[in-house]
């Protein structure tokens, strides 16, 4: 049977992708950002997931203002990195696991989560940066070491789904994975955040105390974390900090009790506090 | 419009349905620039290219002037307007400097020193003396 082995929370700051793509990772500005992913890359190599369910948000790339699905599951065979205005990132195309994706879609829809199904979709930095930081640099011709099922969450137009809804969707995804007959090791990534505001006169807002509390709750009291209201994210962690609701999908897919095996926090990457956590199921 | 619980966050435009409605054509214009062929068309004839989107006169003026906060006030959203910034070769950090009215270096230094503190920046009432 398929099983969920671990969850990863990680920021997906576009500038981190640029730093990797242009060879800046050893510079003093970037070195401490990447230092915190050394452990993670070794851990990924040892854990060898077959599939990652990658929860992220599209930044007006695959979806324009014309269509804004709250949850959209990538069921395609592959997902190419998109041109976001600077040309596509030079990273491999993501390969999906179509059968598992369709199984998850059917299972969670019958579980009353009304997903949008994407049979063609390009992915932006929200999906490619987490893979880059966790797997490291890719050479031309390389493939990502595992299959990826992207799950897009709307956090662009208010309101995003509540933390509670995200947490419960995670639980539904867990039930779907648990009922899939093939032996697969599945990881769930929750991406975005941490505190940051990109817009208007309050841009640059960072709140490390709030971020730390968020990470603590994620590990120790995920139900309490899932009840944080939207206005608190926007006021305390910046208008774009609300991306952190996506981490609750990841947490919901894990056991109630988990082992925190790694945590990394650094200010800044561009406008953003970088946060990263690895949680393993005990079973 | 009804009162919203996020109206008292200072220096912030929450991109809700009201703003989305107001900024729809502006945002469609901005997001179109994600494609190379549209960037080329915009480069060749900015006025002609903008005319393809039924924006208001004020929105067109804000685009012409690259009034980044003005675009947000007229219903733009940062993820869309950042595509116009990318067209101008301006990244998110430099765009943020422009929107906060400081130089590129001042903004970068603020971020290196831990960013903008939450203290004094939670409520519009805290900004009244500014
Ligand atoms: Fe994001």
Explain the layout of strands and helices.
The complex is a heterodimer of chains A (283) and B (130).
Chain A: E1 3-10, H1 14-21, H2 31-35, H3 38-47, E2 51-56, E3 71-74, E4 78-79, E5 94-95, H4 98-110, E6 116-118, H5 125-135, E7 147-153, H6 163-178, E8 185-191, H7 208-220, H8 222-226, H9 230-237, H10 245-252, E9 258-269, E10 272-281
Parallel strand pairs in A: 1-8, 2-7, 2-8, 3-6
Antiparallel strand pairs in A: 1-10, 3-7, 4-5, 9-10
Helix pairs in contact in A: 1-5, 4-6, 6-10
Chain B: H1 17-32, H2 36-44, H3 46-51, H4 57-65, H5 68-73, H6 78-87, H7 92-100, H8 104-112
Helix pairs in contact in B: 1-6, 7-8
Number of helices of chain A: 10
Q: Write the element-wise H/E pattern of chain B from the N-terminal end onward.
A: HHHHHHHH
User: What distance lies between the first and last C-alpha atoms of chain B, to the nearest angstrom?
Assistant: 27 Å
Instruction: Provide the helix percentage of chain A.
Output: 25-40%
Radius of gyration of chain B: 16 Å
Strand adjacency order, main sheet of chain A: 6-3-7-2-8-1-10-9
β-strand amount of chain A: 15-25%
Largest sheet of chain A: 8 strands, mixed
Q: What ranges of chain B have pLDDT less than 50 throughout 5 or more consecutive residues?
A: none
Bound heterogens, unique: fe (ii) ion
Low-confidence stretches of chain A: none
Strand tally of chain A is 10
Number of distinct helices of chain B: 8
Quick one: overall form of chain A?
Answer: globular
